[in-house]
Each structure stands twice: as structure tokens, then as C-alpha cells.
Amino acid sequence: MERFYTCSCFFSDNIFLEEYKLHVRFVSENQFRKDYQNILRSLGCVSESQFRDVLGKIHAEIERRQHYALKSAERAATIKEIYTPLHQHVYYLQESFLDPEFLQLVKYCTSTDATMEGLMNLIQTEAVPRVFRFPVFRKEFCKDFIEELEHFEQSDAPKGRPNTMNNYGILLNELGFDESFITPLREVYLHPLTALLYSDCGGSCLDSHKAFVVKYAMREDLDLSYHYDNAEVTLNVSLGKDFTEGNLFFGDMRQVPLSETECVEVKHHVTEGLLHRGQHMHGALPISSGTRWNLIIWMRASRERNKLCPMCGKRPTLVESDGFSDGFTMDPDDTSSTLSCSLT
């Protein structure tokens, strides 16, 4: 497998302050005070002790990111050693897991006469530009998959959470889903669609991913703040179980100020996936009852992100890491590529 890297901005940018629903960048305390102290005051962080509490959380998050690759590998090894799956079959993608309508879309997209116009006649569009809906899995698979996830949640195996915005969820590479499930799903079934739908933003050259599940439940995470993804293309599948409300909402692309954006609510039905550009701002409204599991696949194209990191908006400074990392690659013929030593 080709070697993948992360961008050094991973250690400083897009740190989410949950209490204030704010993403921040931290390089130094002086820089942070200059850039964010007034904003934080307007959001209720008025005392020095509150500000120090924010700094403590930021330093803890930076430390977590610095040790992320090592800790993730350690968790994966421990899970493999001590965890016994409930449903072993769900770890290996089978066509019988997939909805017939999704398979028809894939069949059309892999035909020699497939066109964007033809696909638009088959796929369901939304009121939001370039957001598409289609059934992905059969209900029977979703049921077994959630049972497996809940079995793992109840086990003593270590668990890594997806990101700073989701406190409840599972990193699927650590659980062993990457090679035999997510990779073939991306390469064989999703790539034909993304190549037609998003050829202008890396959809035809996706070569890595980050996959995880997120959980929403009463007295846990209820919603998800407005954000964009570290991806060229994102698939978000509603797996179940029983819940009310909790629709997604979409704004504009990340470059458009929120003040100039009108958000549109999009329903998300169980077994269905919503496909969208990673830089398309979005969030999830709170559920009002029940439990909801979603599968998220951030699909990445090194050909696109090697030119401009989607998170910091600059040419990436690469840091060595494990697995698919953040989807950047080193071009041996590009003498301008920058490689930094890992901070771990």
C-alpha cells in the first residue's frame, strides 16, 4: 500500500471547543489570546479562570493528537487480541448487504454509456446543491451491524472516539473493518458514483478514507454542530435504531460566510446514505428520543489534497503516520514537497 501522511496542521488547527461551539487554531497562547479572547468573551468566557480552563482543554487535545497514531495502533492490537465479535460476518462486505437500488446505480455507473445526465435520472437529489440520497444497506445488515457495535461498546476492549465533536462512536479501522469492508465498499461500489458526481473535486481519484460510526442518544450526544469534513467526498449512512427528529442540515461551502448562508434541512432515513462534498458545511439537529447510529466515510483524494490541505487551506507540510492517516502522499518527483518530523 502507498504510504500516506497527515498535515502538520492536525496538531494546531480545527480544535473544537464544545462549550462554546467554536473551532479554533492554537499555535501559542499569545496568538490564541489575540485571535479568540474577544470572541470567547462574547460567547460567555469572561473570566481569566474560564479562559485558563479553555487553554487546559486545548493543551489536552493537542497532546491527544500528538500521540494519536501510536495510541490508535495500540488499541487496534489490543482489540484484535481480546475482543470476540458477536457477528463475525459483518466484517466482510458481501453484496447481499447492499440495497438493490444502490446496486442498480453502481451497475449504471460502470456501464460504458454512463453519463452524468443519465445518473441524474436515477438518483434522488435534494434541495441542497450536489447532495444526493440513495439506499445503501438492507435493513437486516443494519440490524446486525448495530448489534455488533453495541456488543463492542459493552466490552472491555479499548475505544477510540472519532473526533473532538463526537464523544460517542467507534473508529472502524481499530475494530478491523478497513481492509475487508470499507476499502472494497469505497473502491468497488462508491467510486463509480463519485467519479461521475464529483469529478471536479477528487471524486474520480479517491484513494483513501477514514471511516467511523457516531452514536446519538438521550443523555449522550444529541446533535452535531455546524462543520465541514476532512474529506473530498463524504458518505453518511443512517443505520438506525429507533429515533425521532435529528435531521441533517446543510449550508454552503466552507468559503462562504455563515452570515451569507441559508441552511436547508434534509431528512435522513434509516438504511439511506447522503453523499456530499466534504467542504460542504453541515450539521445534525438534536434527536428528541431514542438512539441513532450513523456510518460516516470520509473519502480522500491525495491528488487534490496534496496541492492544498482542506483543513488549513495551505500547501501541506507532511508528517509521517500510520495507515491511511489523513490521505496525503509524498510525490517523489516533487521537490517542493515538505516533510516534517512527527511530533509523537
Task: Name the features.
24% strand, 9 helices, single chain
Shape: globular
Strand content: 15-25%
In helices, the fraction of residues equals: 25-40%
Please report the distance between the alpha carbons of the first and last residues.
23 Å
The tally of beta strands, per DSSP, is 17
Radius of gyration from CA coordinates: 20 Å
Description:
The protein has 344 residues and is an alpha+beta fold. The protein has nine helices and 17 strands. Strands 4, 5, 6, 7, 9, 10, 13 and 15 form an eight-stranded antiparallel β-sheet that branches. A hairpin with a 4-residue loop joins strand 2 and strand 3. Helix 4 crosses helix 8. It is globular and about 60 Å long. The chain starts with a strand and ends with a strand. Residues 340-344 have low confidence and may be disordered.
What secondary-structure arrangement, pairings included, does this model have?
Elements: E1 5-7, E2 15-17, E3 22-24, H1 29-42, H2 48-66, H3 68-82, H4 100-109, H5 116-120, E4 124-125, E5 132-135, H6 139-153, E6 169-171, H7 172-175, H8 178-197, E7 208-217, E8 224-227, E9 233-240, E10 243-245, E11 248-253, E12 264-266, E13 272-277, E14 280-284, E15 287-300, H9 302-305, E16 317-320, E17 338-340
Parallel strand pairs: 16-17
Antiparallel strand pairs: 1-16, 2-3, 4-5, 5-13, 6-7, 7-15, 8-14, 9-13, 9-15, 10-15, 11-12, 11-14
